[in-house]
Design goal:
With 206 residues, this protein is of the alpha+beta class. It has helices at residues 3-15, 29-32, 36-75, 78-96, 100-105, 108-130, 195-205; strands at 133-135, 148-155, 164-169, 172-174, 177-180, 182-188. Strand 4 (172-174) and strand 5 form a beta hairpin.
Length: 206
């Protein structure tokens, strides 16, 4: 060290209060770094949360897929069934065009023909029902706009107001969906149906 540097160093020390020389403390590296255990715990919790969310998403996907498969199985024949309703209508019209007197007095080939058409209708309805298609029987039930379509009103004071008294065209459901609403005539002018009867009629119609 040169004399000038020594004098400068001495002078700088003299300028300090009380002539004390500052002591530089070493940096505390331990306090600046995070706790490894805390870091691992945080990572573990994060991975656990991600795993739980993934499992929940997979469970929701599984349930949604099951519902879609069930719906596809139940309603896959909807278009075909709707087309078959025309066949059922024609079979029913063929039977209705035979007067009750003629049907009762029918013998031989005519009787066999009528019985054959009746058997065909029964088999057709059973086949549709095996595939989830069910015919509605609204006659005498409370009108339900969910499965019935009112075509006209019939003055009839003998039955509760809103009762189905005539079926113009049969209705059908497939599973829990309406395939075709029943076209009906509804009574008007009778007493109001009790709440219990109205609920029962709606339940039977569905």
């Amino acid at each position: 060290m040169t004399p000038n540097e020594t004098d400068s160093h001495a002078m700088s020390n003299e300028d300090r209060p009380n002539g004390e020389i500052p002591v530089q403390e070493p940096a505390n590296d331990t306090a600046a770094q995070p706790d490894p255990v805390s870091v691992l715990e945080a990572e573990k919790q994060d991975l656990k949360d991600k795993l739980l969310r993934t499992l929940a998403d997979m469970e929701n996907l599984r349930r949604r897929t099951e519902r879609e498969v069930a719906d596809a199985r139940s309603y896959a024949v909807t278009n075909f069934a709707r087309d078959m309703l025309n066949v059922a209508d024609n079979v029913r019209r063929a039977l209705e065009n035979v007067p009750a007197e003629a049907r009762a007095a029918a013998e031989g080939p005519l009787q066999a023909l009528v019985e054959g058409i009746e058997l065909t209708e029964r088999d057709l309805l059973k086949t549709l029902e095996r595939h989830g298609v069910k015919k509605l029987e609204p006659q005498g039930q409370r009108f339900d706009p969910n499965v019935h379509q009112a075509m006209f009103e019939v003055p009839n004071p003998d039955v509760p107001n809103g009762t189905v008294v005539q079926v113009v065209q049969s209705g059908y459901v497939i599973g829990e969906r309406v395939l075709r609403p029943a076209l009906v005539g509804v009574a008007k002018g009778g007493p109001k149906a009790a709440a219990g009867e109205a609920e029962a009629g709606a339940s039977n119609a569905s």
